[in-house]
Amino acid sequence: MTANQPPVVLEIKNLTKKFAVDGGRVLTACDNISLKAYAGQTLGIIGESGCGKSTLVRTVLQIHPATSGEVIFEGQDILKLRGEAARQNRRKIQMVFQDPAAAFNPKMKVKEIVTEPLLNFGLIKKSEVDARAAELLQMVELPVEFMDRYPHNMSGGQRQRLGIARALSLEPKIVVCDEATSALDVSVQEKICELLVRLQKEKGITYLFICHDIGLVDLMCHQVAVMYLGNVVEYIGGGRRISTEGMHPYTKVLLKAVFKVDFKPGERIEPLESEVPSPLDLPQGCPFASRCEFCTDICRQQKPQLKEVAHGHLVACHLVK
Asked: How far is residue 280's CA from residue 302's CA, in Å, rounded to a whole number?
């Protein structure tokens, strides 16, 4: 930790998640991942669909049991917690889901949804529901009179604000945003991101921000991990920006596939069209070797490890020095 670096609030150490599938085979969704999240900052995790982003955070949250590895939070490995200790720990790490409509019970009113966690942990009495619901709705800039509505009477952006209010009701130290803006219109995305940034500054929350939008991640996040086929292939922090200083061939391909409003004459989108190898049959060498135009023999034979190429910047590539 440098003089200006906040303390580490969550450390993922060598985390691996494998799923058993038919025929006795094993699907490796996350392969020996190590990451750190810092207090009051945002760790972005990006990559194509199926790269293991959501599985990683769901394993951290113990929705999926880990195959191996550790997740250190407040000095202990939370993957080893069981029973009431695990339940109490969940107060401190909450999640905002991609589809708020699917995350809520349609038969519950807004005030019931947003205060249910508080009642579950005995933090408020039933007589205090209305007052606490009003506070939480105001926090996320929703009208207090919404508390007697049902989720289906709200817009997508309003439902996502409700999801944020519910996640923050227990005053967690870490909030996981799993594609929390991807189902929203661009104008609504902007408002939700502004809300997340404001709440982070006010409450010192640490975000794990899972997203497909590399441009949004570049703007929102203090550190960014690029995942490919269950591996972190690049990690950038230390004040560097992935949009201008990304080095891994996969990161560069992702950046070329981004639509920009300021395209220069002759510039065009270059999508990565080839298929991702099956996680049931991981390649021996670099996971990106079969799709990389710079691939050499060593790339096919030996898996590269993350190495520091600049302060706070790690890349897993034989060709990056």
From this structure: 19
